[in-house]
Amino acid sequence: MISEGDSTDSVPAIPDDSIPWDEVEGAARAIFSVWAYGREFEWAKECWRHFQAAGLATYEGEFETTVAYLRLVTLGRVYREFCAVMWDEDTTDYPLTDLAEELSINPVALGILAAREVEQDFDGAEDEHQLRERSLSSAITILRPEVFACLLEVYGGDLQLYSRMAATQNSQDGESEERDQEENLFDSSIFQPTGRNASALSYVSNGFRYD
């Protein structure tokens, strides 16, 4: 767990069979490109290290490798949802197929994972693109809880996780409502609830869900 005062670099040893960051870096730059001067890419790299340490980003066959890539897509989707709630920066209509475009997603592995999401309706998919979009949506629904659980543990709680995510927004002139949180990301005493950040904290506390 990352506790108050600890560096975010303090993570457990990375297993030898982990997928290296270099392999997903290009895709991550496309997935985490919400702000012109933001720090979301740095956070994505940080989270990938936590995935590696938790065994959520390993080479264990084609299926597990695809699932690892999909965890990155899930993280990207979660971050875009967070930005929509926190800053009204809504990019959630960005196609999931585009988020996953630069990753080697095995379609069979994606289908196996998506089939576990029983509430998804695939019957209405009119073409391969729509079928893939719905499959990715199902995969994100399935992987969202474990991504949340991993990050909740390493950051030490929902408020700390919220604070870390809030610190990724940065403007060119340095004007940011969350600027004062940068040096004390894990100090819960800095949190002052407002309508907007309370909604964002609720989103995080609910397991990266709106309700």
Oligomer: single chain
Query: How many separate domains?
Result: 1
Mean pLDDT: 84
Largest sheet geometry? none
What brief labels describe this structure?
mainly alpha
What is the strand and helix layout of this fold?
Blueprint: H1 21-31, H2 40-53, H3 62-87, H4 96-99, H5 107-114, H6 128-155, H7 158-166, H8 195-205
Helix pairs in contact: 1-2, 3-5, 3-6, 3-8, 5-6, 7-8
Description:
The protein is mainly α and 211 residues long. It has one domain (21-205). It is 53% helix and 0% strand. The chain contains eight helices and no strands. It has helices spanning 21-31, 40-53, 62-87, 96-99, 107-114, 128-155, 158-166, 195-205. Helix 3 packs across helix 5 (107-114). The protein is globular, with a radius of gyration of 17 Å. The two termini are 26 Å apart. Mean pLDDT is 84; it is low at 3-9 and 172-186.
Give me a quick take on this structure.
This protein has helices at 21-31, 40-53, 62-87, 96-99, 107-114, 128-155, 158-166, 195-205.
